[in-house]
Structures are given as C-alpha cells and as structure tokens.
Amino acid sequence: MIHLDDVRLTLPSEAGPVDILRGVDLDVTPGESLGLVGPSGSGKSTLMAVIAGLERPTSGRVRVAEHDLATMSEDALALFRRETLGILFQAFHLVGTMNALENVAIPLELAGARDAFEQAEAGLGEVGLGHRLHHYPSQLSGGEQQRVGLARALARKPQLLLADEPTGNLDAETGQDVVELMFRLQAAHGSTLVLITHDPHLAQRCDRIVEMRDGRLSDAPAPAGQAAD
Ligand SMILES: Nc1ncnc2c1ncn2[C@@H]1O[C@H](COP(=O)(O)OP(=O)(O)O)[C@@H](O)[C@H]1O
Ligand SMILES: [Mg+2]
To answer: What's the confidence (pLDDT) of residue 202?
Structure first.
C-alpha cells in the first residue's frame, strides 16, 4: 500500500536549509496497521504529509496505492487524496458552520454521491452518533467531534487511513474509546492504517510500530517487560 524509498526532505529556514526527512524507507502492506512514534519535531507529521501527497520530497520514491506521487500533478494528487485517503487530525478540523451530518456529507458530495446524506447518516450511526446528526461541532464534546472526524475520514471507504495524534486533544479514556472505534472500523472496512501517536499503549494496538528520530525511521524497540530472551 505504501512504499517509500530513501525519501529525503530539505526545507529552507531562517537559519539555513533543514534536513527534515533524512532517508526514510518504509513498506506498509494492505490492511496493515502501523504505529508511528517518536519525539516531537522528529518528522512524523511531515512524513504523513509526504504520504498524502501534500508535501513533495526533495528526493526519493513515494508509491501509495499504486500511484507514483512524484509524477502526479497537483490536481491528480487532490483526486488521489479524495479517492484513496481518509485523514484524521488531532484538532478535528470540522467545519464549524456545518452540523455533524453536513460535515460527514462533504467528501461524499464532492465525489458526486446522490445519497450523500443517507450515507453520512449511516456513517454517523456507525460511530454511535445517530442521535447527534444536527448538532454543530461547538455543541459536541471533544470525543464526539473526533467521532464525526472519523465518520468523515471513512465516509468514502478509503483504502488508507492516516491519523495524526487523533487522541491528542482528548482525555485518556475518551481517546481510548475513539481509538477502539477507529481500529474496529479499520478492520471492518479492510483499510490500511498509519497512526501517529505519543501514547505507547495506543501504538501497541497496531500490527507494527516504527519510531522516527531526527528524520529517520527504525523499528521500535520491544516494550519494557516484553524483551525477547
Ligand atoms: N514548512 C516547514 N518549514 C521548515 N521547517 C518545518 C516545516 N514543517 C515542519 N518543519 C520542521 O520539521 C521538523 C519536523 O516537524 P514535524 O514533522 O511536524 O514533527 P513531528 O510531527 O514529529 O512532531 C520540525 O523541526 C519542524 O519545525
Ligand atoms: Mg506532528
């Protein structure tokens, strides 16, 4: 599903060029869930932006769902994102002037679905919000807002779900509930998942964990108490 080959990204800054990604290799197979951990500022969100075709690397190959992103125009990349990806953000990014149903219907309407609102209602039912369809984001709790975000991300049944600290604005218990839901729906939809998280317990729910440090990936060490002997 994801094949990264020696991906490097250098961006300009006031202090001169900064090497943000320094040779990232990664293969994620269809249906796999990958936990991406590592310190703040190590390049995790940047890597996700590269996988989503939002940031073009300075060098290296990026293949996602059979697309070679380097060869694609901005329009083709926008279409690729709409067709292939669901993205879940820490800060929810719901449209404040739209209710839950309208927020989830956006990607469906963009895709030209005639039954966008029926599908959106079903999706909100799947995340347990069938009784909150006409509530606006400001009338929903953080956990509810992120469940709307999840329903929106999954609305088009994307092959790949990218989640960047999706529980970062939630208390531990609410975050756990949202993540349980995310894993359940990922499995039900057969989606591939990349989950960026600070929380080692959440990362351990993934099939595999990799760690970003200073723009490079390595296999995460086995958690304490589970070291091989
Ligand atoms: N557009 C940009 N221009 C320059 N530096 C950036 C830009 N975006 C991110 N960075 C820097 O790249 C590094 C990695 O950032 P990020 O990917 O957000 O890390 P993480 O998600 O692991 O916390 C940080 O040092 C950040 O300041
Ligand atoms: Mg980040």
So the answer is: 87
CB 5 within 8 A of CB 64: no
Calculated CA dihedral for residues 99, 123, 140, 49, nearest 10 degrees? -90
Mutate to test the pocket of ligand 1, among 11, 19, 20, 24 (most ligand atoms within 8 A of CB): 20
Q: What is the rounded CA–CA span in Å between residue 137 and residue 187?
A: 27
194-216 confidence digits (pLDDT tens): 999 988 888 999 999 999 999 99
Q: Which CATH number fits domain 2-219: 3.40.50.300, 2.70.50.50, 1.10.3720.10, 3.40.1280.10?
A: 3.40.50.300
Rounded Cα–Cα distance for residues 13 and 215 (Å)? 16
Write out pLDDT tens, residues 27-45: 999 999 999 999 999 999 9
d(CA 172, CA 178) in angstroms, rounded, equals 10
Query: pLDDT, tens digit, for every residue of 65-113?
Result: 999 999 999 999 999 999 999 999 888 789 999 999 999 999 999 888 9
Which residues, judged by CB distance below 6 Å to any ligand atom, belong to the binding site of ligand 1? 11, 13, 18, 20, 38, 40-46, 212
What sign does the CA torsion over 29, 32, 38, 43 have? positive
Nearest atom of ligand 1 to the alpha carbon of 165: 21
Paired with 33 in beta bridges are 193
